[in-house]
Amino acid sequence: MKLIVGKGTKSKRQTTIILQIGKPFMNLVQAKTVANQVDELLLERIRDGSYLPGSRMPSESELSEELGVSRATVRTALAKLAANGLILRKQGDGTYVNARAGDASARFGNLWDLVELIEGNGFTPSIQPLSIERRPASEKEIFALALEPGDELISLRRLFFADQQAVILADNVIPFSLLREPLESIDGSLHIRDIFQKYFHQKISFAITDIRSAVLGVEAYKHLGGEAGRAILQLQVSLFGKNNLPLALGLNDFDDSTLRLSLVQAWS
Amino acid sequence: MKLIVGKGTKSKRQTTIILQIGKPFMNLVQAKTVANQVDELLLERIRDGSYLPGSRMPSESELSEELGVSRATVRTALAKLAANGLILRKQGDGTYVNARAGDASARFGNLWDLVELIEGNGFTPSIQPLSIERRPASEKEIFALALEPGDELISLRRLFFADQQAVILADNVIPFSLLREPLESIDGSLHIRDIFQKYFHQKISFAITDIRSAVLGVEAYKHLGGEAGRAILQLQVSLFGKNNLPLALGLNDFDDSTLRLSLVQAWS
DNA sequence: CAGTGGTCTAGACCACCTA
DNA sequence: AGGTGGTCTAGACCACTGC
Fold first, then answer.
1. Is A72 near strand D, with its CB below 7 A from some atom of it?
2. Is B109 helix (H, G, I), strand (E, B) or coil?
3. Nearest Cα residue to B72 out of B64, B80, B62
4. Residue A57 falls within a domain, yes or no?
5. Residues B46 and B161 occupy one common structural domain
6. B71: which strand partners?
7. Whole-number mean pLDDT of chain B?
8. Is B137 in the same domain as B227?
9. Nearest chain B Cα distance for residue A256, angstroms
10. What is the pLDDT, as a whole number, of residue A268?
11. The domain that contains B95 carries what CATH number?
């Protein structure tokens, strides 16, 4: 791909960007905003070495002119990169490529996304459904999900693999009353987001994740193997829909001897 | 404080906000941007119940008009609140107060800030310095801090309290060569950010935090007490300065039986 | 269909850093 | 002193939601 980065010529808009900002048909393809396109372009330039690690990137004004978008749009894209720790911005100085960008495995705002977590560690993720069962809710679950005594749950147990290694044992419980499709039709290998969309007709609005330490239990040991009785991480997730309605609980036993949970954070 | 929220009258700018946006003397006080002032005002209204949990907040245009700032500025403030999970925004609908806001103990981008973590759990934090010593770097530390064999470190050990309960045992190691003030003058009860500023003349640029599980060791048990041999969280922090220079390592033994590490995350 | 949040623009002034 | 990122404005059009 040829990019015109020089400053002299007036020939802008030569990059692959800005080709589909036309307002119609935006929802056909993956609805890319201009800022997102800029973000992806810059990400690609960082990854392929056009912008070297530790080096200073072009200024906001330069990028704005080169790409033919407003500076505000450039800033939106840069803000996203900075939030993920990929670049460092210094007022009065410039924007630098963070040489440690690859050291983190997780991005903020994606702690619940186990697939991305595994990818961030450099493995190929896959999901193996273990069981889907219907059972009464425990007292704790009744409280956490705002249910009535006697209400039932769907318990979806799954095993996440990093390459061929089992790394996360996940148990999601969802009120049975929310189910909108036959229980048997559920495809347990889907992303939890898609499961909620397809079978529950619900959109997840936000999540609260508790990170705890625990000792590997008997059940988890069967699937995760390794040294018995060792310490593991437990990600306790609560998923909520609109109006703060509790949708589901997730209990994820996380083998942190294989998988790292690490985050880059810009200093405020 | 009297706030004019009504829509009929043209009397805006009645709130305490927008009183110090005058451009000079901004650096004397805590340099508050207009967006930050809006952010704080909205936060206060959420906290004091002016905006009830779960209810819909005024629209961006209404806030913009009421406060006499541009919609973009309002959006900046709202974005910050949304990032911290305090509000939920729905296109075509409105902005809602997240009733679960208080459920999280940590804010994104502040995982390294142990003081804030303790505050987020509803305790009063305090720091007790244990020891400051100078010693040779281990092989691992030489690698992680980009040192030469034989280089020395400063090891700063501290104990963090939540009210009267010891909850975090922290060990920070910093290359001795970075020290710019007498070793004896270091005040170990300061925030790590201030320690770097005062005694090392360095500004921390970003941090990478690894979250791991571990078994409570003998040394940590002495300080944290509780059940021996139980699982704890370990926050392994690497601090970096400008130019990706490694500044320090932190090893924080985190008693998650007292302190919760929980995060709110908006669904993307 | 009216109103909401989401996106984008063009221009301005500022604080800050480095030379 | 010149350039950088940080902030703010006023206006515009869009996609989406709920009535």
1. yes
2. coil
3. B64
4. yes
5. no
6. none
7. 85
8. yes
9. 6
10. 65
11. 1.10.10.10
Q: Over the stretch A150-169, which tens digit does the pLDDT of each residue have?
A: 999 999 999 999 999 999 99
**Last residue within a domain, chosen from B102, B128, B148:** B102
Residue A13 or B244, more confident: B244
Shared domain check, A86 and A118: no
Task: Name the residue facing A209 among B54, B242, B262 (closest C-beta).
Answer: B262
When pLDDT is averaged across residues B9-22 and rounded to a whole number, the result is 35
Domain endpoint, select from A68, A102, A136? A102
Task: Note whether B262 and B107 are within 8 A (CB).
Answer: no
C1' (D5) to CA (A93) span, angstroms: 7
User: Is B260 part of a structural domain of the chain?
Assistant: no
**Residue A135 phi, psi dihedral angles, 5° rounding:** -155, 165
Report the alpha-carbon distance of residue A94 to residue A97 in Å, rounded.
Answer: 10
Domain with A247, as residue range(s), is 114-254
CA dihedral sign, ordered B90, A205, B79, A42: negative
Do A147 and A242 have their domain in common?
yes
Q: How confident is the model at residue B268 (pLDDT cuts 50, 70, 90)?
A: low
For residue B256, give the chain A residue with the closest CA.
A212
A38-48 core/surface letters (b: 16 or more CB in 10 A; e: else): bbebbbebbee
Are A212 and B104 in contact (CB < 8 Å)? no
Please indicate, yes or no, whether residues B72 and B195 belong to a single structural domain of this protein: no
Strand partners for B12: none
Among A53, A99, A261, the residue with its CB nearest the CB of B211 is: A261
Hunting for tokens 């980065």 — which residue is that? A5
- Supply angle C-alpha B234, B240, B243, rounded to 5: 155
Same domain, A153 and A25: no
Q: What is the 3-state secondary structure (H, E, C) of B161-180?
A: EECCEEEEEEEEEEEHHHCC
Nearest-Cα distance to chain A for B10, in Å, is 31
Choose among B98, B205, B268: nearest Cβ to A267. B205
Compare all CA atoms of chain B with the CA of A99 and give the residue at the minimum distance.
B244
Q: Could A90 and B212 be called an inter-chain contact, meaning their C-beta atoms sit closer than 8 Å?
A: no
Q: How many domains does chain B have?
A: 2
- Give the pTM: 0.85
| A48 and A122 share one domain | no
CATH code of residue A231: 3.40.1410.10
In a domain, A20, yes or no: yes
